[in-house]
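Hmm, what's this shape?
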Amino acid sequence: MVTTTPTLPPAPAAADVCYPESDGQPVAETDVHRTLMFELIGMLQTFFRADPHVYISGNLFVYYQEGDPRQVVAPDVFVVQGVRNRQRRIYKLWEEGVVPAVVFELTSRSTRREDLHSKYDLYERLGVREYFLFDPLGEYLRPPLQGYRLHQGRYRPLAVDADGSLWSAALGLALHARGAQLRLYDPAGQRWLPTPQEAETARRAAEARAQVAEERASVEAGARRVAEERASVEADARQEAEAEVARLRALLSDRGQSL
C-alpha cells in the first residue's frame, strides 16, 4: 500500500490576507460608554486639530502582526503621534510604523478581565506609552479612573492626585473623573476641553451673538443714515432760507428799504 502525504495549499501571501474591518459586535457596552467614547474622541480631535501628525480614533481594528488577522485589538479610544491625520478603515502597525501613544479603555464588569489582563499585557508589549482605564458606572474600579505609564518596558501605575485626577504626559492634559464623565483639562490654555455637544452649543451661541451684533450694527447704521439725511435736509433748508433772506435784502436795498 502506497502512503501519500496530502498536499497542503500554500500559505497565502501577505497581500492576499484579509483584514476585516468589523467583527459584528456592538460599538460599546452601554449608551453611557458609547457617549463617553464619542466625547473623548471629539475632545481630543478638537485639541489636536492644528497638528496634522496626530491621529485619533476609537473602536477601530488595530492589527499588529502582518499576515495574521487574528492578532487584532480595538481600543475604545487611542491617540497616535507621528502619523498623518487621515481617515482610515483599519490600522496596520507594520504599515504605519507607529504604535499608539495613548489608549483609553472604557471598562465595565463584563470587560474587566480583558481590560486588566489581555489588553494590559498587549499594550505593554506593543509599547503603548500610557494606558488609561475608566469605569464610568463605577462597577468595579476603585478609584474609577486609573492609569499606567511605560517605564523600561513595563507599566507602572500612575499616582492619582488628591482631586482624583491623572496627568497624561503624552497628551499634555489632566484627566478628571466626574461621575460618568471623563473630562480633560488643558493647563497651558487654562481651560476645560469642550465636549462635542458643548462645542456645538458654544458655536450656536456665538452665531446668535454675531447675528444680534450684526442686526444692532445694521440698525445703528440705519439710524446714522437717517440722522445724516435729516442733517443734510436741515442744512439745505438753512442754505435756502439764508439765500432767500439775502435775496430779499438785496431787493429791498435796491428799493432803498431795509429788512
